[in-house]
Amino acid sequence: MKKAVVVLLIALVVLPSAFAAGQADTKQAEKKVVQVFGAFVDEELRRFEEAIVPFEERTGIDVVYEGSKDFETLISVRVEGGNPPDIAALPQPGLMYNFASQGYLVPMWDSLLEAVDANYAPVWKDLGSYDGVPYGVFHRVNAKSFVWYPKKAWAREGYEVPTTWDEMIALMDKMVANGHTPWSIGIEAGGATGWVGTDWVEDVMLRTAGPEVYDKWVNHEIPFNAPEVKEAFDIIGKIWLNPKYVYGGTNTILTQSYTDSPRTMFENPPRSWMHRQGNFVTSFLQDDIQANLEEEVGVFPLPSINEEFGIPILGGGDQFVVFNDRPEVREFMEFLATWESGEIWAKRGGALFPYLNQDLNAYPNEIERSLAEALVNAKVFRFDASDLMPGQVGAGSFWTGIVDWVNGKNLDTMLSDVQKSWPK
Amino acid sequence: MTTIERQDKPTSSLIKLGRIAFSVLVLVGVLFVLWVGFIFLRDSNASQGIIAIIAIVWGVGGIALLFWVADWVVNRTSTATAKRLQPFIFVGPALIILAWYLFIPTVRSLYLSFFDAQSKNFVGLANYVFAFTDSKMRESFTNNLLWLVIGTGGAVGFGLIIALLTDRVKMEKVFKSIIFMPMAISFVGAGVIWRFIYSYKPAGEDQIGLLNAIVTFFGGEPQAWFTMPFWNNIFLIAILVWLQTGYAMVIISSALKGVPSTIIEAGRIDGAGEFRIIRSIIIPFIAPTLVTVSTTIIIITLKIFDIVFTMTNGNYGTEVIASMQYKQMFRFYHYGRGSAIAIVLVLAVIPVMWYNLHQFSKREGF
Amino acid sequence: MTSLARKRQNRWNVVVNIVLIVLVIVWSIPIIGLLISSVRPQDDVLNTGWWTVFKGDGDFTLNNYRRVLGGRQATFTDAEGNVLRASGDNLSQAFINSFTVTVPSVIIPILIAAAAAFGFAWMVFPGRKLFFTIVVALLVVPLQIALIPILRDYMKIGLTGSYLGIWLAHTGFGLPLGIYLLYNYISTIPRDVFESAFLDGARPMVIFVRLVLPLSVPAIASLGIFQFLWVWNDLLVALVFLGGTSDVAVLTQRLANMVGSRGQDWHLLTAGAFVVMIVPILVFFFLQRYFVQGLMAGSVKG
């Protein structure tokens, strides 16, 4: 045994030193590296990497992107643990407020600020600010106030796109009379179940109460259970809780995955005829539908309810924030603030960008072009309220409140429970 | 050689000093070697395969070497000192690592549990008040009790039955491997398959969930299983039993192999039936193992998190403590509450600890 | 054995086999469902139950496996109408990473836990009860609370992103169970096995290496398989201490990220689950002969 230990000891000393000697020669010239950490993975990750190639080629800076589906957990552990990435793409402004308030973030510097002022509508700068100080730069964003439908089946039945809420209700009744189920709704999303419902509530609130009340609601200047919120729930309830209007009734709303539910529109015959969801919905559809998007899929904005507020657009998006201030990090952030950083991705499809000076012709199909146009030209654009509210509500009681309500809980009780959970 | 050295012969203080110095030198030398290895592994950019092999040799060999050298050093001291230090060579490394990785973080959590979300202001017992009065938390306590009783009972019960039965058949390895397989599936995969079992589609559609397919085959109405109060907990616990029975089976089975065959044969010759043999010979013999297995599965049920989080997210009255802890910490970024709930979990395990300590006291060392 | 006893034995065997077969069928239904789903096209998986294949419906495909093993072959058409292909990275790197993480993360804690279990079981020292109580209590501590403080320490000493860091982390998180399980086994080794050795004045280290370790093989093998499974299937600890960039990503990270940002491709998980499962099952088969042998049986006799 002693012999074995001696051999081991020698091996431990000799082997590493042997390799240590070899490695000195192989080490390459130091390349400047920018680490970016975000929540998007797989296909979107690859698109992002493609989109930043021009930057890497021009500057010689290596941008290393790491994506993880456990982003929310990891980012807080890494930041609190003293190991933040250079740049993080935060999906929720709430997360940015949290880091900004604790002084982890680097505020925008003058040249970046200039680029942001020039290339974005003011709303994006505000969304990236905490306490009046701008931190976050938006890149890829999404727009959610859209209704999708099976184009060919609609044409066959002679259904027409509604332009007002009443027209939409009339259309729904017509569908029911024809033996069709108008809506497909699924809010199941594993640990995030319920968010689809929060989007509906927000969309309707923007249409009935308007953006100012909406902002007050987000900032808790009016209580969560204000009459305006209740009204929005009542309007949605007329659709959601009526089994004639929704495929499979409330049980299906609760148990069907939000990625599966749009697929029911493209079965033969269609199980449902409309689906409200963001621009990313196309990636959930059947392969053959995705291949013929323009022929198969129709889309219109969720109609207006109160003409005063028109057709507001609800959206979301990742904001890029800086944790480590280095020249190459700054350079990359400034690149992200320009349309150049989105153009390649826009051409590939599957993403919308907020840049004012973007070239709408870059988008590969009519659907995305029209969505991008709606996004850039929207008179009223508002960020997803549940992402802006404190986590206890926005990613907690609001989600579960929706689920409880669909499952039969009294609306007033549910709303006041959510109100109680708002952190003081 | 060691026996001679350990005799308490009078030695001059100089030799003693030299011996200590030499021991320390050896210790330092070993630590240095390990450090060089570490620096190399940290900074090297040799090919992955080579690094992996060196890393494995270095890591495993290094630990063995540390044990060996520590033992050698201690044995160079006087007998009395050696005797006092000996136990710490064995438990020392474990205690140091545990202190670093789990004990100190737990103490830190205890401290943070008296502070607010961002750990800035002292809030007294507010987080504990939350932990015991919040309606979701109260729901979690009841549910965890359900998990503890049914989950542990199910997994240990099935594990015991299967271990006892497979002990008596030829195809032992095949049967055991199948029961064990769920443990090998990572939970992301297992989650998908349980979706295929509990999935719900409206009446009249093709069911893709096995349970609903069976129900509709016999003319029943399809059910949304996860929304059924109380029973949804049982459906979730079934997943745990499916996963953990393999664990119970492996441990119990290895204890069964230790039951001396002579005792069992003696029982048979006395004319005892199989049930009698199991009840009065085998079970008492493996009782300590059953305690061990139950303890670990009780702790698993207290910490249960991923099944609930991915299947129902705690909706429909299925919330559990560990999922609340995770949400407070990483969803709501409320470190105070998250820490308080973690401490509550540690408190909840006190009865189990007490029982184990009781067992522990029965055994004596040298 | 009398013929009556033998007859009873035979009847027993039939009953035992039937009960076992029923249990095994129940246990394997989900796995069979998973296996069948992993070779079905996505649309079939979402539209019909997996058992319908027994009726002869539906197609089989290896596409799910192809995509999991070879990375996604993304085909898309750009604005100018060119068809482009992008292929993902393969899994071999992730396999190597997983092995590098797992092997020491299994052996190191077992060594340390076995030594500690021996210490707790057979040696007397001050604080023995207190320390043991703490070890049991630490079993229930959620490892999430340790991530931030440990990461801070790692940043100070440069352990972040190193394999040593993740081995130690898995050692720390795996030790309570390891010590607890091995203690319960080692403490039941009959006293007379080492009584003579102790009386002969043999060093504890010698007793540990020569007697305790060999006698504990069944328990060590069982613990080994559980620690292996835990480390192999772990995602969180690896992501925190090792990171998730492609050069260090372990298998589970690759698979988790393969299902799309919104998890829409979860049919790939069925194939992924089997790919990830291969190694643990092989390890189980390899170790099984150690823990079914029952080495204890021999030592207890007499």
From TrEMBL, chain A:
Subcellular location: Periplasm
Record Pfam families: SBP_bac_1
InterPro entries: Bact_solute-bd_prot1, SBP
GO cellular component, one term: periplasmic space
UniProt similarity note: Belongs to the bacterial solute-binding protein 1 family.
Signal peptide residues on this chain, from the entry's feature table: 1-20
Coiled coil: none
The keyword Signal appears for this protein: yes
Classification of source organism: Bacteria, Pseudomonadati, Spirochaetota, Spirochaetia, Spirochaetales
Keywords: Signal, Transport
Record-given protein name: Carbohydrate ABC transporter substrate-binding protein
Entry keyword Transport: yes
From TrEMBL, chain B:
GO cellular component, one term: plasma membrane
Broad class of where this protein is predominantly found: membrane
ABC transmembrane type-1 domain boundaries: 141-356
Annotated transmembrane regions: 20-41, 47-73, 85-104, 145-166, 178-197, 234-256, 277-305, 339-357
UniProt keyword annotations, A-Z: Cell membrane, Membrane, Transmembrane, Transmembrane helix, Transport
GO terms of biological process kind: transmembrane transport
Top-level taxon of origin: Bacteria
Topology class, membrane: Multi-pass membrane protein
Pfam families (alphabetical): BPD_transp_1
Compartment(s) of residence: Cell membrane
InterPro entries membership: ABC_transporter_permease, MetI-like, MetI-like_sf
Family statement: Belongs to the binding-protein-dependent transport system permease family.
Protein name: Sugar ABC transporter permease
Organism: Sphaerochaeta halotolerans
From TrEMBL, chain C:
Domain named ABC transmembrane type-1: residues: 95-287
Lineage: Bacteria, Pseudomonadati, Spirochaetota, Spirochaetia, Spirochaetales
Coiled coil: none
BP GO terms, sorted: transmembrane transport
UniProt superkingdom: Bacteria
Protein name as annotated: Carbohydrate ABC transporter permease
Alphabetical keyword list: Cell membrane, Membrane, Transmembrane, Transmembrane helix, Transport
Family: Belongs to the binding-protein-dependent transport system permease family.
TM annotation in the entry: 12-36, 106-125, 130-151, 163-186, 207-229, 268-287
One Pfam family matching this protein: BPD_transp_1
